[in-house]
Structure formats: C-alpha cells, structure tokens
Amino acid sequence: MNRADPTTAETNFLSATDREFSVEEVAEIQTLDATMAGTESPATPGAEPSETATTEIEPKPHKLPTPFPSLPRRPVSGRYRSGGMGFQLELRVDVDGRRPVRKVSGDFYQLSGSTVSYFGSFVVDAPVLTVLPNLIMIKGIGRYTRSAGAPKIRISIPRTFVFAAPAPATVQFFTLTNQPGALHVCQYVSAYFRTVQYELDKVADVTTPVFDHYNTGSLPSGGPARNLSVISGYAEAGVEFQATGRNDVIPNLEEGADARWNNSELHDSMERHFSQWRDIPQWAVWEVACQEHVLGTGLYGIMFDQQGKQRQGCAVFHAGIGGTTSDKLRLQLYTYVHELGHCFNLLHSWQKSLATPPQADRPAALSWMNYPWLYPGGPSAFWNGFAFQFDEPEIIHIRHAFRNDLIMGGSNFAVGSALDNSHPFDENLEDNSGLKVELSVEKSGKSFLFGEPVHVKIKLTGREGRTVHPYLHPNFGLVQLGICKPNGDVLVYRPLMDHCVMGQAVTLGPENPSLEDVIYCGYGKDGFYFDRTGFYQLRAIYNAPDGSRVMSNILHVRVRHPVSVADEDVADLFCGQDQGTLLYLEGSDSEFLKHGNECFDTVLEQHADHPLATYVRLIKGLNMGRVFKNIDTKERRIYVRKPQPEESVKLLSRVSDVAESIGLDAITVDTVNQSIADAHLRSGNKAAAEATQKRIKTHAKKTLAGAKIA
Amino acid sequence: MPVLHIDLREGFKEDDVILYLGDREAVRRSGVTTDLTISHAASLEVQAPAGPSTLRIEVPKQQVSSSTVVDPAETPFVAIFLRDRQISFHQLKEAMPML
After folding, report:
1. Residues of A in contact with B97 (CB under 8 A)
2. What is the domain-level CATH number for residue B59?
3. Burial annotation A260-275 (CB, 10 A radius, 16+ → b, else e)
C-alpha cells in the first residue's frame, strides 16, 4: 500500500523495491530525462561500436507473439574486478536491476611486489548508456580522488542470457583528447556492490529477544509487504552483509556497576568481542544489543565508535525498543538498520548540510536515516509512507561513495569529502613481503620540546634470506616518511638534499638480522615540519627491491609547549632557515649560514645548561671534527679548514655526558663517540681513542662499508 | 513543583546556553555541543512553576534566542532544535527518542 506522494522526488520510479529494471528500461528513462531537461546526452569518447547502435529507444509497433518467447538477459549491474599486477580495478556498474541509480564507480588497488594497497576511487555521475542487442556500452567522465590523466571511461559488457555465466566488463580509459589510456578486463564478482562482514552480539542482561525479522505488511507502510531483516534490508540497498557466525553473549560486568553503558565501555567491549576487530579500514561492522545506555531509555541506539578508526561499531538499546509486538519489531528493524547507516557514514536526513562537503538537508525523506518524530505530519505520516529503504542520495553514497568515505575505519564520521582524499600512508590491504619496518624514538614520553630537533629511529627486520637494500634514510629516495601534523595535514618529509646511490643488496640473516638508521626530520625542503605544539603521527614506507611497499607502525610523538622564558628564547634561536639547514647538515662553516651559527652561539652563551644546547654542541662538535673546504671563486683557491680535534672533543664530550638524560638515540650516541674517538686519534691520544671506542655499541650499522654515494 | 525535562538537540557547537522559566534564570550550561550521531547535546531538568509559563532560551555565541509557552502538566518534555539560526521547540508527553 503506497500512500506517498507520486509527484515528489521521494517516489522516483526507479525507487520501487519490488521489481527489477532491465537495461532497456533504464536507457529509455535516461532518454526521457534528457528530453525533459532539454539537453542532449553528453558527447561520448572513443571509437563507435561496430554493431548497429540503438541509442534512440522509441516505442515499437505492436507485434504478433513469436512462437518462442525471448530469453531474458542477465542484468549487467554489480561488482567486477580485474586481476594482474600493477593496478587492479574493482568496478561497480549500476544501470539495471533493483533500484538502479545510473552510476558507475570503482576503486583502484596497487599491487607492488608482495603488498596490496588502496590507491584511489572514481565515480561517473552521469554515464551515457548505449544498449545493443548483445552488448551494453557505458561512457562518461569520471570524478577521481586523485588527478587522472585519462579521465574518460568506456565500459563494454556483453549481454548474456540468464542461464549463462556473466560476462566480464572491459574498461578502457581515455584522455580528454580521446587518446587511449589504461585497459582493464574485470571479471564479474557479485550482484552486490559492497560486501561487509557483519557481527551481532548481545549483552547478557537484555530482557527481550534480539531482533530477527519483521513483516513490513504487519502495519501500514509505504512499500510492498515483505519479511525484512537487517541483512535483507541492506541487500535491497545493494550491500551484502555476511554474518561472521560469531554471536557473543557479553557479560553484564562489562557495562559497569551502574548496569548501563557509556561509549567508552561500548568501544572497549567491541575490541574484546568483535571477532573481526582491527584498527584499520575494513569492510566489517559490529552491532551489539544492549539493555540501556547512561543517557537513559530514550536512547534507542548509537554509533558510539568516534575514536581512532571510526564507525566500526554501533549499539541498540532494548530498554527503549525491545518487545515482540508489531510496532516494537518495526522499531527494532528501523533502529538496527539506522545505526548501521551511521557506520556507513550517513548523517540524519535533516542534517546532511553538516557533512563535509555539505549536502542539501532532506527533512521530508522517507528514509531509514530520518526520525519519524521529526517528519512533517509526525510519526503516523512517516510510517504510513515509509517503504523501509534509504533515499536515493543515500543509496548512491552506499554504492558509489569513494572508498574511504564509506569503509568502516575510513574517514571520520560526517567527513565524506569529494576532494582529493588520497591516503598514501594507509595500511596495506595485504603484506606478504616478509619485512617489518619500525619507527621509534627514545625520548621519554615520546615528547620533544618546542624547537627541539626531532630524530626518529628506523629499523628494518625480516625473514632470513630476504634481500633488501640498506638505504633507510629518506635522503636516498627509497623510504618515504609521512608526518601528520596536529591539524590533520599530512606531509611527506622531503630532505634538503637527494642522494643517489649505486644500489646495494643485503641478505637478512644471522650476520645481518636488522638494519637501522636515524632520521633527522625536523627540517627539509618544506621548512620546519614540527612547527607547532601538539600531537603528531609519523609513518614510513620502505620500498623494497621487489617492489613491495612496506608500511611501518604509526609513531605518535608530541611537541610540548614552552614552559619557561628560557624555553621560549631557545625555541626562537632554533627557528630559522639557517638553523634548520645547520641541523640537517650536522654543522657547517659556510658563511651563508653565518646567522644560524650566531644564533646557536647565543644559545651556548646565554643558555648553556638548557637541554637544547646539547644539540648545538652536537652539530658544532661533529663539524669541528671534520675537514671543511671553502672554494674562493675569485682567487680560484680551495681553503681547507682542518679538523679541530680538541674543540670537537670538548663539545662532544658534553653531549655524551647528557645523552641519556635528554633521550638521545643510541645511533646518534654511537656517532658522537665515534667522532670523539677519531678526534682523540688525530690528537695522538690512542689510549683515549680506544677507551671511547669501547663505548660504541655497533649492533647496527648506519651505512654499510662500500656503499657508494654519487 | 513539576519538573520540565529539556533536551538540547541539534545545532549546538561549544555554545553557552541559558534557559529562563518565567522571569528567572533556570539553568545555564557552557560548552554545549551536539553529538551528530544521536542529534543530542544535553539533557536538563528544571523545576517549573505550576501551570503554563514562558520558557526562553538564549544562545549568545550564535546570537539567537527564542521563547515558547510550556505547561509541564501537559507536556513535560521539550526538545529544542537550532537550525539555520532558527530555534524550534517540540513539546511532548514523552521524551523524543535519540538514535
């Protein structure tokens, strides 16, 4: 019984849930839409098909029935996937079948060696459909999460009979000048656009049955009568919910002494009981049936997961919705589906303008995401017209949103930006490289003073026999270091100088169990990277010789506010292009960095006991221990400043004395001690050199002997 | 004295909210922010005079205020929404659910 207004957009003809649409019908509707809009279909790229096209579908004259009925064709809508190396494409075609929204979308995955990572997404908002007797062709221009050199798309799908296997989709990309780009042949995977692992647990004290299904014809509604469960409700939206088979009963004690749940307790319970739980983006969601939340019986459900990787779990509360009457079962179905809708990053119907980017509010939507109590005309009007479905923009989002705006653990709630949302530092989907990269700092509390040089240790380990390269520092271009600033901006650390290397292979094993290096990442081509107080995240990508892109852990560090006047003064003296360059170069005599050296001299004169003075002694001491050559172009001479071993020892010894107290990493301490030893040797003090050598813990080598630097 | 249950729902973001019943300030809250997942910011209970009285809300940072007549004996629950700088009051016999 459909009592909704047939003239409103809410009752788009294609919104009917009780029938499937053939591709001919959809193409005819597309033609009618274009006619009513007074526009022609957009120009299509690429070569014309060899078969006779029937893009203009006109009403056919009545024919006498043929002796044999025409065999039905299989719908072409669904999910397809290409194979092979390089880039794989997961394609979603949505042009026929149940509630088609006339979109095409896809996700790219990059296969590098033994790792698979998400690369980006696209959507074709207005595809042009060409229906041939044996072929469907879809053309359009995509909207991408990354810049695309060939943004035009042509998709060809042979039409097969329902009793035959589905045909693959051939996807050809073109430049704007119609030059062919990449070609992907995508095998049919599923009639569903998404597949999500779904787990429903309950708490032991829930007094009413957990929801199973509701017959929508039990009470007046706006759609066809049918038995609906959470799983079939989402199936109608084009999402396959695969039950994990785990249904934990959670002990009462996890909800705390007050017998009611708060959001922290729910999140903790999710981590304990969700069999699929991982703090990464993944197509998996947890729902738990509880009795009551701390906000009282008026809270029917909540998507509580708004920390870390968000939207992975939700809860429903039977104190408000439990029961076995038809209205209660209806309320349960609505609540269970509604909360999962938030996990898909859907906002309430009247607050779509609060999304990023904002959309139009739809307070009169007959949707799972609206409130019956806020619907115009009140709950009765809502329930009488509600067909137990999402509205069309929500269907488009669920089926075709960019992956990270939809996937659980992807973008934060309400962030569904259509802007470039590439995440090169996202976790790999698969990593069979046999390698592990770790970032760490030895600072207490992983925190740095404002202005303090940030040094990070990087360590590579792996399976015995694995071949790797030893160039762990970003200087060599084979490791990228991403820095997420407190405001969420992600930058890739770009060292001041690129170093080219000949290439060297190392085999991991008992002689080389691991490789380590230390990275000064405070200053580079983009200036100072830790230029504000707050919390930062760092992650490295190691590009292995076989092409694998190995992700490190995420290292969390904090830059603290200056506490004293001295802290402020020293931070000011450390901030400057000259100073950043001197820290990167580990000191220099260059006259072009004179101002920086003068600032550092002021630190030693006026703040000799300040912790950051140690870093000044470090770089000056290392510099004094080296030769420094100046080229005078006027006199055409090279002036060589010889090492100053006594001055070097004097400075570096003070560094060595306080290294542990300021949290200097072990590799830098070894470097300091090696320089002191070398300086003693130059001074002729062999005994002191040997004594210093003994303090060096060479358990890891910074660079391997023989590595050539061009 | 009857109790009036007030739910601040949509549209609040680190706001100061002052509620008046009749001619007196009934309650004041700061840092009121809507949780978008349940469209709820705060739940307040205030003692109300018997019979109808005027409920007034002020949200200084957003420079909005509005008032309505409430009768706790009839509708003891009031849900307040703030959208596009317009305040709407929903007076109910039962609390408006949140989900």
Report:
1. 298-300, 320, 371, 373
2. 2.60.40
3. bbebebbbebbeebbe
CATH topology of domain A194-406: Collagenase (Catalytic Domain) (3.40.390)
Whether B96 and B80 have beta carbons less than 8 Å apart is answered as no
Q: Determine whether the interchain pair B36/A354 forms a contact, defined as Cβ–Cβ distance below 8 Å.
A: yes
Q: For residues A677 and A689, is the Cβ–Cβ distance under 8 A?
A: yes
Residue B97 lies in a domain: no
Q: What is the pTM of this model?
A: 0.77
Q: Yes or no: say if A168 and A81 are a contact pair by the CB < 8 Å rule.
A: no
pLDDT in tens, A459-506: 999 999 999 999 999 999 899 999 999 988 888 999 988 888 877 889
Q: What is the pLDDT of residues A274-305, one digit of tens each?
A: 999 998 899 999 999 999 999 999 999 999 99
Q: Beta-carbon neighbour count of residue A220 at 10 Å?
A: 13
Instruction: Report residue A417 as tokens.
Output: 């930006």
Contact A295 B36 (CB under 8 A): no
Closest chain A CA to residue B84: A353
- How far is A348 from chain B, CA to nearest CA, in Å? 8
What ipTM does this complex have? Answer: 0.92
CATH number for the domain whose boundaries are A23-58+76-190: 2.40.160
Q: Which CATH class is domain A433-560?
A: mainly beta
Q: Which residues of B touch A350 (CB under 8 A)?
A: 10, 83
Q: Which residues of B touch A348 (CB under 8 A)?
A: 36, 39
Alpha-carbon distance of A359 to B71, in angstroms, equals: 37
Report the C-alpha gap between A167 and A160 in whole angstroms. Answer: 7
Q: Looking at chain B, how many residues does it have?
A: 99
